[in-house]
Amino acid sequence: MNQNFVKSAVAATLLIAGTIGFSACSSSDEQKSESSAKVEKQTLTNVSYDPTRELYANYNEVFAKHWKEKTGKEVEITQSHGGSGKQALEVANGLEADVVTLALEYDVNAVRDAGLIEDGWVKEFPLNSAPYTSTIVFLVRKGNPKNLKDWGDLVKDGIGVITPNPKTSGGARWNYLAAWAWAEKQYNGDEAKVKEFVKKLYKNVLVLASGARGSTTTFIENGQGDVLLAWENEAFLSLKDYPNDYEIVIPSVSILAEPSVAIVDKVVDKRGTRELATEYLNFLYSDEGQHIAAKNHYRPSNKAILDQYKEFDQNVNLIDISYFGGWDKAQSTHFSNGGIFDQIYEKK
Amino acid sequence: MYKETKSSKAVKWFLIGVSVLFVVLMLLLPLITVITEAFKQGFAVYEKAVTDNYTVKAFWLTLEATALAVVINTVFGLSAAWSLTKFHFRGKKILTTLIDLPVTVSPIIAGLIFLLTFGRQSPIFPLLQDWDVKIVFAVPGIVLATIFVTFPFISRELIPVLEARGNDEEEAAALMGAKGFTIFRKITFPHIKWAFLYGVVLCAARAMGEFGAVSVISGHLRGKTNTLPLHVEILFNEFQYVPAFAVASILVLLAIFILIARSLIEYNGKKKNKVEP
Amino acid sequence: MKRTNRSVIPGFGLTTGITLAILSIVVLIPLASLVVFTAHMSLDEIVATITRDRVLSSFRVSFVTAFVASLINAVMGVVLAWVLVKYSFPLKRLIDGMIELPFALPTAVAGIALTTLTADTGLVGGFFAKFGVKIAFTQAGITVALVFIGIPFVVRAVQPVLEKLDPAYEEAAGVLGASRSRIFWKIVFPEIVPAALTGFGLAFGRCLGEYGSVVFIAGNKPFETEIVPLIIMSELQEYDYASATTIALVMLVASFVTLFLVNLIQTRNTRILKGGA
Question: How many domains does chain C contain in total?
Answer without folding.
Answer: 2
